[in-house]
Q: What sequence folds into this?
């Protein structure tokens, strides 16, 4: 079985990458490789504190050429945590791509999910190159749409899946049309929107939102959208 890599990436920060990566990894039962070296990362969301650890699994594995063992937790995805030093110690794109492909093969899971640094990085470019699907969260705001448009223009040959993210209950018609026009004439596809949910920013729980069964009323539409996104990823990656 070939393990498929799903990379979550965007040209802009704060668009919902980490939130989606965390939930998608949980629902796919996939290890989550965190390549985000800044704070606010999946590693933090998971509750992993590099300050309290002697080893840095990602850096150690890259340095030694070994395959890290993802750590497990309760109702959250298995994780290869990132480390702040990764910013200056990240491998070039091609090496990162080969490394992720090798780890994916060795783990032998159906999927591996990779979260990346907003705005791009060499390692993020590697994660894009290795991906069977690239999830691009895109809030329906002009700046975010501009950033996504730039990405689609530059990499229409990548398996991009645009995900309208943090979408208000009543989205603007012009923004919806704009996302349609961005992908028109390209092989890039648009997934169902993921709604804006109040309280996600201040959420303290570390369990995946989609692991809560049944979901709270406030989260139910978000959870339904995530399930639908995951089905769509499976279809697009031919699982
Ligand atoms: N669907 C949503 N509804 C409401 N808030 C959300 C939603 N998705 C994400 N957020 C919040 O928006 C902020 C940015 O989200 P997130 O950290 O997932 O984005 P990011 O693209 O990974 O950011 P960065 O570029 O900093 O890595 C966070 O505070 C998060 O809790
Ligand atoms: Mg993030």
A:
């Amino acid at each position: 079985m070939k393990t498929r890599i799903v990379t979550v990436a965007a040209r802009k920060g704060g668009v919902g990458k980490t939130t989606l990566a965390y939930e998608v990894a949980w629902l796919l039962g996939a290890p989550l490789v965190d390549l985000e070296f800044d704070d606010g990362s999946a590693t933090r969301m998971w509750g992993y504190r590099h300050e309290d650890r002697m080893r840095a699994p990602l850096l150690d594995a890259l340095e030694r050429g070994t395959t890290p063992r993802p750590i497990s937790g309760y109702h959250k995805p298995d994780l290869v945590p990132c480390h702040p030093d990764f910013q200056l110690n990240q491998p070039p794109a091609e090496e990162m791509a080969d490394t992720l492909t090798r780890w994916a093969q060795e783990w032998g899971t159906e999927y591996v999910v990779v979260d990346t640094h907003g705005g791009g990085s060499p390692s993020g470019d590697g994660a894009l190159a290795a991906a069977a699907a690239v999830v691009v969260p895109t809030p329906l705001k002009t700046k975010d749409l501009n950033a996504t448009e730039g990405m689609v223009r530059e990499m229409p040959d990548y398996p991009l899946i645009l995900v309208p993210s943090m979408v208000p209950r009543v989205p603007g018609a012009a923004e919806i049309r704009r996302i349609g026009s961005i992908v028109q004439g390209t092989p890039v596809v648009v997934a169902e929107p993921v709604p804006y949910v109040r309280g996600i920013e201040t959420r303290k729980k570390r369990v995946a939102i989609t692991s809560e069964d049944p979901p709270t009323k406030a989260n139910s539409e978000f959870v339904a959208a995530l399930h639908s996104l995951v089905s769509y990823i499976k279809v697009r990656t031919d699982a």
Notes: The chain has a mean pLDDT of 96. The helical segments are 17-28, 42-46, 57-64, 93-107, 122-129, 142-154, 173-183, 220-236. Residues 13-19, 36, 40, 118, 165-166, 194, 196-197, 200-201, 222 surround adenosine-5'-triphosphate (ligand 1) (CB under 6 Å). The two ends are 10 Å apart (CA to CA).
